[in-house]
Amino acid sequence: MRMNGDWIALEERHTCGVYRKQPVVIVRGEGVRVWDTEGREYVDCATGHGVALLGHSHPRVVAAIQEQAGRIITCPETLYNDRRAELAAALVSLAPWAERVFLCNSGAEAVEAALKFARLVTRRPGIVAARNGFHGRTMGALSATWRPEYRRPFEPLVPGFTHVPYNSPDALEAAVGSETAAVILEVVQGEGGVYVGDGAYLRRVQELCRARGALLIVDEIQTGLGRTGRMLACEHHGLEPDMVCLAKGIAGGVPMGAVLLGPRVGKLPPAVHGSTFGGNPLACAAALATLGVLREEKLPERAAELGAFFLSRLREVRSPLIREVRGLGLMVGVELRQKARPYLRALLQRGVLALTAGPIVLRFLPPLVISREDLEEVARKLEEALTESPLSEDGDDG
User: What's the predicted TM-score (pTM) here?
Assistant: First the structure.
């Protein structure tokens, strides 16, 4: 029987190298926990960068996938499909301003689609994005992403992108003009450090876009579907964007992305965009099950309650290493006074999976089904991890 080291060696021999991997081989997951090849148990507060929204292998999602796989797995959008129609209606119902939806397979694809739609509808080239924002690594999404280390190897990127300070209405006002097709922002900047957007700022962004003929794209790939305590993070501030990008946990672990479209985008002409696997019945069935669980089990409300507890508990941790604890709902960042990655390893050794968000922030994205007891365990193990001096380790997740 192969052990952790054997699988690591095999994967290392053939992997492309673009991922910085933790030294553990995960083979099973159930609810908020995962297990490695040697039977060690971990509380998963990484959740595949926020994908396992309902925890791992939720019975409703598993049953939906199994049932749909026995009926039909793929059906292109050049044909109608019952599951796709049902999901489109369910997604549009998430936001009173939404009219239509484009379905794809990932967050980066959703961002690429939104950028194309903005340029198509406005006939303008310019895109304004925020510093510390992260929108993906494909060429258009990467052009909107801020971090220079992601961008430099691939320059020149798509022209027409401008970055301005986040939470600064004056900077945005100076940047949005007659050539601006869209402004793309996150309500909470996830990969960039878990920075929470100011409500007055976000509403001002919307006003500026309306006044100057630009579209507002809100990237809810990480914040959407209950994570921040509302079904959409836009709801915290009464926003009605022209497009919202969704992905990650939308289908309970099955790859899926979506763009909600408002009336200023409307129905698009045929053949301006497409996706071979977008809206496939298998992913649609998983997404319908996921949305059903989110609503019936009131998981956004649960995220609001448990997120408030978790933030409060982490702020009680007495460590000179902690500079700030911030977040919204169950999207939480702990900013340290030194590199975060060594403490990621220390948490792993104590049975907790977490993430970084930039070089000095530990990020926690637990499943929305996590218990208060589990969060208490995570906080206690973070306290333990911060008391030791782990070996220095360069780099960060992203």
Answer: 0.96
